[in-house]
Predict the structure.
Amino acid sequence: MAELPARVTGRSVPWARDLAIVTGASAYLAPWLVWGAWSMSTIAGVCGVLTGVAIGVTTPWLLERVRGRVPLPVLAALGFGVGAAWGAGVGAFVGIMGPTLLGPTNTALAAAMIGSVQLGLFWFPYTFLTVLGRPTWPVVVASSALAPVVGWLVFSALL
């Protein structure tokens, strides 16, 4: 994988790895622990990992481009928007690929809410730790562990 240039915001390989873990855990664990839907969860997990890698490869490069130009509260809020878009995409794909208890539209809506919370709460602390040169694994572990809780809350609200 080609390394995209980034100075303050870190290298793209750790971002890709860590976002693959968080998005894969979110996409797999949320539906699996709520419904035990193994096939749907597997499709969602694979899709989550692949899209997490794509987001992770580009994020440090994009952050480096906006650094100093976009206020921190706006950057923090962008994580929720990117997470919602990511979740909606994964949910729509899963809804189209197979039967879900919520149907394709509501699956995309639920996944958008889960993605918004997961990436919204994850990416800003992760970025902060990366810029400081500190270990990021605590945020990765916490966000991955939070996935089933967020999934259960969202699915419970929609059902």
In short: Residues 100 and 107 are 7 Å apart (CA to CA).
